[in-house]
Design brief:
Blueprint (H helix, E strand, L loop, with lengths): L1 H26 L29 E6 L9 E3 L2 E9 L23 E9 L5 E10 L17 E2 L3 E6 L3 E6 L4 E6 L16 E3 L2 E6 L5 E7 L5 E7 L9 E4 L4 E5 L4 E5 L5 E6 L10 E3 L2 E5 L10 E4 L5 E2 L12 E5 L10 E3 L2 E5 L4 E6 L5 E7 L11 E3 L2 E5 L4 E6 L6 E6 L11 E3 L2 E5 L3 E5 L6
Parallel strand pairs: 17-21
Antiparallel strand pairs: 1-33, 2-3, 3-4, 4-5, 6-7, 7-8, 8-9, 10-11, 11-12, 12-13, 14-15, 15-16, 16-17, 18-19, 19-20, 20-22, 23-24, 24-25, 25-26, 27-28, 28-29, 29-30, 31-32, 32-33
Length: about 450
């Protein structure tokens, strides 16, 4: 009896250790844009607070072409995408500006997926999934590889807007591909919305000037499960799968209406009152869904906090800032390119021109109003947080480290090399921070971590 008891105890302990290890490994994964829950937050205690182009750099790997997609991580592998222009390519410029549209290139391009070793940055494989001339133009600051891939730990799903969706296994073999008909976007600015993966399906929003749609793709076969047309014109917001206390739904911000669908494409609720362009990615925290729309030329640039359970039209009445299904709205608070960040009960806003603000995430009350980050510059990447700090990466490659508090306090700045223009939102994997710049990918890790 004693032997049987000890044997059972050993089995239980072994099982617990395996589950704990799997949980820890899952915490180290960064499978999509802005990571688990699309929130841009890590609780890992060993992440670095300071770095430069040489300090606390575990490795850096030069990458060909141009791509503003974020890296994603699963286990010991890093995946990211790029598009290589075989002709002459005009370099992007920093800042917000008009005139960014450019003619469709005549030169051949290669669309590639890269897999790097998380440990040392070596290239494990690279795979060209398409070769040819682009079918549409892009904004000078955009790229033909701006959509962040997703992974389920078995395959990586790389979406290249007007080219298609490609499923590769972890050894780089193409499992299936699905092509999409090219669509024109506003002012020829190109695509950027990333896919969302949930269960056995990949959800893609393509808001364009011709015929917008939301499509669900079977991740095993690449076949369409369903497609619904949308009335929107061009937007660049990644869809968000919101698993709340009542149901699981697909939230799709848009210019005319923000809509939410069930997992079979049936419309659940919608509201009007967004700005002229929507880019930021929704996310949820503490039971509320956060949606922002901040086109700089629009008369309204709102942040919304949405409660679960909406049905039909939940548009706010004129002049109202809350309702049964909308917990609060700040009508002029949203940023343009970056997504907002909820961390430790505060909603942090990073504006493109180097200004920050902070609100109570539960009530929407202002904690501190707009203030300029000293020496801030221009920002496209979304902020992220860990270790009681908020990190803001400028287009010039400098990260401003702010204390996550009720006042603006810059703790220090971390500057990379002169050529490290940065528009991609970083990723975190365990105690490693992955920063993508125009020419390379950095792995930042505190000295002494193993």
């Amino acid at each position: 009896m004693k032997t049987a008891f000890l044997s059972s105890l050993v089995t239980l302990l072994a099982t617990a250790l395996v589950l704990t290890a799997r949980s820890a490994a899952a915490d180290d994964n960064w499978p999509q844009f802005r990571g688990p829950g699309a929130r841009g937050i890590s609780d890992h205690p060993g992440l670095p607070g300071q770095w430069s182009a040489t300090e606390n750099v575990a490795w850096k790997t030069d990458l060909p072409g141009r791509g503003w997609s974020s890296p994603i991580v699963w286990g010991d592998r890093v995946f990211l995408t790029t598009a290589i222009n075989k002709g002459d390519a005009e370099a992007p410029k920093q800042g917000l500006y008009l005139g960014g549209e450019r003619p469709t290139p005549e030169a051949e391009h290669e669309w590639k997926v890269f897999c790097l070793a998380l440990d040392d940055g070596s290239v494990l494989w690279e795979r060209t999934v398409h070769r040819g001339k682009p079918a549409t133009s892009i904004h000078l600051k955009n790229s033909y590889a701006s959509e962040t891939p997703v992974t389920d730990g078995q395959r990586v799903y790389a979406y290249f807007g007007n080219i298609g969706l490609f499923a590769l296994d972890f050894e780089g073999e193409l499992v299936w591909s699905k092509r999409f008909e090219p669509r024109e976007t506003r002012e020829g600015w190109g695509m950027a919305a990333s896919p969302a993966l949930w269960g056995d399906r990949i959800y893609i929003v393509n808001d364009n000037e011709e015929q917008s749609y939301l499509v669900a793709i079977d991740k095993h076969s690449g076949e369409e499960a369903w497609r619904v047309d949308r009335d929107e014109k061009s937007n660049w917001s990644t869809p968000y799968v919101w698993q709340n206390e009542l149901r699981t739904e697909i939230v799709t911000p848009g210019t005319g209406k923000t809509r939410s669908y069930d997992l079979e494409g049936n419309l659940l609720w919608w509201f009007e009152g967004m700005s002229g362009i929507t880019i930021a990615t929704p996310y949820a925290d503490n039971g509320l869904l956060y949606i922002t729309s901040g086109f700089v030329a629009s008369p309204q640039r709102p942040i919304y906090a949405i409660r679960p359970g909406g049905k039909g039209d939940i548009t706010l009445a004129e002049g109202a800032t809350s309702s049964e299904h909308i917990a609060w709205c700040q009508p002029m608070a949203a940023p343009y390119n970056p997504s907002t960040l909820v961390y430790q009960g505060r909603l942090h806003v990073l504006y493109d021109r180097g200004i920050v603000a902070c609100y109570d995430a539960k009530t929407g009350a202002e904690i501190y109003g707009r203030q300029r980050i000293p020496g801030g510059g221009n920002f496209t990447a979304s902020p992220w947080a860990y270790d009681d700090k908020v990190f803001c990466l400028s287009e010039g490659g400098t990260t401003f480290v702010l204390r996550a508090g009720d006042t603006l306090e810059v703790l220090h700045t971390n500057t990379l090399a002169e050529d490290d223009m940065a528009l991609a939102t970083p990723a975190m994997a365990g105690d490693r921070l992955l920063l993508r710049t125009a020419p390379r990918l950095y792995c930042i890790r505190a000295a002494g971590n193993k």
